[in-house]
């Protein structure tokens, strides 16, 4: 048994992943550096290279950790739909929560960092397979939420709704007083109107 597979080693590795994830969410890819991750985790600098073969490997672990946490949160919302009210406004908020994060965590800056991270993934080929896999799971989860809410949609329609949100968000982010969630909400309201 190596120290990386001991309970202490697993706790340290997990602390590094969580620290890298927090930095990624707060400041994007440029914020994830060996020293910053070690400091955030409260571990020695050498631990980052001990538990991860490269910075790319650490970034990949952080992206996966964050993506899985968001999918788990979305899955919980889906399970709660059995008894939840599913009016159009509730449905729109579910879609926005899934694509932009919960409103309680929302502000223009956090949405900007989220979209910067999505765009920057294109410059990191090592992340593309993971990003595609997480994206496919997100689309299926979104489709299931829509179907359970009475909006029986095709996978193509899901792509269309995501594109509407993305376009509204990007356009809103360049405004003087950006409200990306409000802009996306308006587009979804029109798109999902009966």
Helix content class: over 70%
Rg is 18 Å
Question: Structural class, judged by helices and strands?
Answer: mainly alpha
Q: Approximately how much beta-strand content do the residues carry?
A: under 5%
Our measurement of the CA-to-CA distance between the termini, rounded to an integer number of angstroms, reads 60 Å
Can you tell me the overall shape?
globular
What are the segments in which pLDDT stays under 50 over at least 5 consecutive residues? none
Main pleated-sheet profile: none
Topology pattern, helix = H, strand = E: HHHHHHHHH
Task: Tell me the number of strands.
Answer: 0
Mean pLDDT: 89
Oligomer: single chain
Number of domains: 2
Instruction: Work out the helix count.
Output: 9
Could you explain the architecture of this structure?
The protein is mostly helical. It folds into 2 domains: 1-53, Arc Repressor Mutant, subunit A, CATH 1.10.10; 60-191. The protein has 9 helices and no strands. The chain has helices at 7-27, 34-41, 46-51, 55-80, 88-100, 108-121, 128-148, 155-173, 180-191. Helix 1 crosses helix 6, helix 5 (88-100) crosses helix 9 and helix 8 (155-173) runs antiparallel to helix 9 (180-191).
